[in-house]
Amino acid sequence: MKRNTLLFYIGIILLVVTAVYLNHFYNGFHFDDSHSVYSNPNIRNIHNIPKFFKDGSTSSILPQNQSYRPVTTTSLAIDYWLGKGYDPFFFHLSTYILFLLQGVLMIFFFNKVFGLSSDNKNVIWVALFATTWYLLHPAIAETVNYIIARADVQSTLAVVAGFVMFTCSPFCRKWYLYLLPVAIGALAKPPTVMFAPILLFYVLLFEERLSLLDVFKPAHWKQVGRAILRSIPAFIICGGMYKLIDKLTPKTWEPGGNSVFHYLITQPYVILHYFTTLFWPTGLSADSDWEPLHSMNDWRFFAGCAFIVVMIAIAFYTSRTARLRPISFGILWFFIALGPTSSFIPLAEVLNDHRMFFPFVGLVMSVSWTAGLFVFDRLADKNSFITKNNRWIWAPVIILLVLCAYGTWKRNNVWHSEKSLWLNVTVKSPNNGRGLMNYGNILVDEGKYAEAENYFDRALQLLPTYSYIYVNIGLLKEKQGLYADAEKYYIQSLVFGTNYPVPYKIYGKFLNAMRRYHEAEVVLEKSLSLSESDLETRLYLAESFDRQGEWDNLKLLAANTLRLDPPNNDVLGYLDDAQKKKSKADLEADNVAASPSAEKYLQLSLDYYLAAKFEQSINAAEQALKLKPDYAAAYNNIGSSWIALQQFDKATDALKKALSLKPDFELAKNNLSLATNHSTGVGYPAKPPTPEDYINQGLIYYKYKLYDLCVAASESALEERPDYDLAYNNLCAAYNGLQQWDNAIKTGEKGLQINPNNTLLKNNLVQAIVGKKSSGK
Fold first, then answer.
1. Which of 317, 612, 667, 740 has a 20 to 30 Å separation from 232 between CA atoms?
2. Ramachandran region, residue 646 (left: φ > 0; alpha: ψ -120 to 50; beta: rest)
3. Taking residues 4-14, what's their average pLDDT?
4. How many CB atoms within 10 Å of residue 438?
5. Inter-residue long-range contacts of 42-46, CB under 8 Å, 24+ positions, other chains counted
6. d(CA 445, CA 742)
7. What residues are paired with 256 via a beta bridge?
């Protein structure tokens, strides 16, 4: 085929693929995008790029997911910079451009491999078909649509580019330049290092012209040696890059799985599933509900093993002749590319559809060449149906590609929003607890609480120890105003999610809303210790410090946060509070005192209301009325504050006055409706906790061995009632649980000075004394 003609067809392919993917460019952020992209402050500053190559923790705000992928993280920072924020178009566009580039390179690579195996001038058509099939395949769309999965695109592109440079450019081969994209790709995702073993088999099959069986024959060991020698540079670079990646990957990274054995025995059937998906991709799911097999005594294990044996046998058989070797090479590529995810490293999910992206390059090569040879053989027979009706050759090709294009378009629609994605997961993977939970979250956002609770209950039955389910049920109960129930679920989330920051963060936010700032400080500091890059945690903790007047802590936290996210206006506000040692409301009060006006007092009233200081909000509004007696907005603020304090009669009087002054005042009308229905209209209890509340909560913390929180609750009780012996008892018991014997003894003795007859406190003090002696401290 002439060069211009080839370029024309390549252009047509790219246009068709782009038309199919037109509906994906504004698809949202999903799944792991939340912690690696959308909530990751590191990618918001393009000047952080050098840091990405030094510190793997910049890849995610969740320690368990932090890995060394600086090329991927860099690409995300560039997209954020180009889009001036989280514009999904730019994130999808950069991935898509690399995807198309990979497709172009695949055409040249396939053509090279097929050309080494056949002198038929039509091999280019097989290469064009194989690439188009790959680019339009719905399984591939699972990777293209998933923003953080661009790492698979980048690494696979690197492998294909390396092969094109090795096979088509003597210059690149001579100076080992083909290893450059491989090294870069490894910094996107480690499976790139599979380039080395794949290259070895390429050299054996196509350059040394050996069959797989020949490798084991002494007569061919010299050729085998030459192949190994030619592959050594690739193994050195790939091995070195893997070593580097392993060294720079944070120690907090976790693969997510548990049993190596159960994961391993499941993989043969998973690999069979991947293979069948090439031909029948109707079971695609963003989050599957497959579970590891419990034993080898399962038909799926034997079916998977039988499939692998058959495929290996085919690879050996087809490697015997040059004409069939692309089939063998494609099969080997398929298995080798699956090695990192389908072997001895137990990942959180036994299968993921985006894991097919790299292996399918080899599989479509193998299957397409098989089909190509069938067509070539039929065309060589002058009496065959295909020869007599050669136009019909294109019918099955067009049908296949149209079906794939339709499937990809539909999968793009599925990935459009969180709702469409997780609804699809609940249909395709009905036994996936996480999928049910995530769809339940969407229903909560839509205000469909009863439906959401049903999904959460189903999820809880499937994953009874999954901390995130408890977090989300807690959020649901909080939205319903069931604060006691919400707190029970939040505490359960801490019990099951000890090493995860999110349960602590969400509970800390809840405690802030409950005005239990000391406890909030404890859990938020724990969350921050687990995820230092989480800006939300930092803001919630800043709120705790601000409300408690801990100005030094607030100043330090704000300064450190600004290094992470310099233009953050909320943090700058907290820093200003810390430097002036006054909250926003107090600063506004100073401003009003210096230059009083009704409008300024009204703003001060609003600031106090937002800080849940309702009495002060009323006082500020009353000062506004002294300066402007007919100020309807001030009466509305007074009414809102009385509602929050559950003084509904007083609220009604103030709001009626507001409406008499301004009959069309919609906000006052809404507030009057709340007062009439005796609804506070605020998302938290209006009254602060009592010392007794803190004591009871401390006992709950102690029951679940949350001793630090028990200490915080007890200290809060003592702030309200310094002579509360029960608080000292809880403190003593909690310090015993923490094995802080000196603190336990000190608090126990103080409590007994208040109430010498407190038997429980006496027992706890004895335990502390015995514990100290036993510890030898």
1. 317
2. left
3. 96
4. 25
5. 42/73, 42/77, 42/533, 42/564, 43/73, 43/76, 43/77, 43/80, 44/77, 44/80, 44/565, 45/77, 45/565, 45/566, 46/77, 46/78, 46/80, 46/81
6. 48
7. 347
pLDDT band per the 50, 70, 90 thresholds, residue 97:
very high
Q: What is the DSSP letter of 147?
A: G
pLDDT score, position 646: 84
User: How far is residue 252's CA from residue 417's CA, in Å, rounded to a whole number?
Assistant: 31
Q: How far apart are CA 182 and CA 197, in angstroms?
A: 13
Distance of CA 583 to the CA centre of its chain: 35
For the segment 175-202, the average pLDDT, to the nearest whole number, is: 98
Give pLDDT tens digits for 414-452.
Answer: 999 999 999 999 999 999 999 999 999 999 999 999 999
The sign of the dihedral angle between the CA atoms of 233, 234, 236, 241 is positive
553-566 as b/e: b if 16+ CB within 10 A: bbbebbeebbebbe
Angle at 566 between CA 562 and CA 571, to 5 degrees: 50
Q: What does each C-alpha distance from 584 to 305, 349, 453, 644 come to in angstroms?
A: 67, 47, 38, 21
Which residue is listed with tokens 């590191």? Answer: 42
What local confidence, expressed as pLDDT, does residue 684 receive?
Answer: 58
Q: Reduced to 3 states, what is the DSSP secondary structure of residue 505?
A: helix
CA distance 91 to 435: 24
Output the 3-class SS for 405-427.
HHHHHHHHHHCCCHHHHHHHHHH
CB atoms within 10 A of CB 700: 15
- Phi and psi based region of residue 705 (left: phi greater than 0; alpha: psi -120 to 50; beta: remaining): left
Contact 661, 630 (CB under 8 A): yes
**Computed over its alpha carbons, how large is the radius of gyration of the chain?**
33
CA-to-CA distance for 309 and 318, rounded, in angstroms?
A: 14
Nearest-angstrom CA–CA distance, 309 and 172: 37
Give the pLDDT of residue 2.
87
pLDDT digits (tens, 9 = 90+) for 222-250: 999 999 999 999 999 999 999 999 999 99
How is 56-99 classified by DSSP, letter by letter?
GGGG-SSGGG----HHHHHHHHHHHHHTTS--HHHHHHHHHHHH
Q: What is the residue whose two structure tokens read 């009083």?
A: 596
Cβ atoms of 683 and 513 closer than 8 Å: yes
**Residue type for 30, please?**
H
CA distances from 275 to 280, 303, 334 (A): 9, 13, 9
Tally of CB atoms within 10 A around 623: 18
Give every CB contact of residue 17 below 8 A, 6+ residues apart in sequence: 100, 103, 132, 135, 136
Give how far the C-alpha of residue 415 lies from the chain's centroid of Cα atoms, to the nearest Å. Answer: 15
Overall average pLDDT of the 604-630 stretch: 90
Residue 298 confidence (pLDDT) above 70: yes
The Cα–Cα gap between 126 and 554 comes to: 65
Handedness of CA 573, 578, 580, 584 (dihedral sign): positive
Give CA–CA dist 541/544, Å, rounded: 5
Structure-block tokens of residue 30: 């999903």
pLDDT at position 277: 98
Question: Residue 487 carries which side chain, given as an amino acid letter?
Answer: E
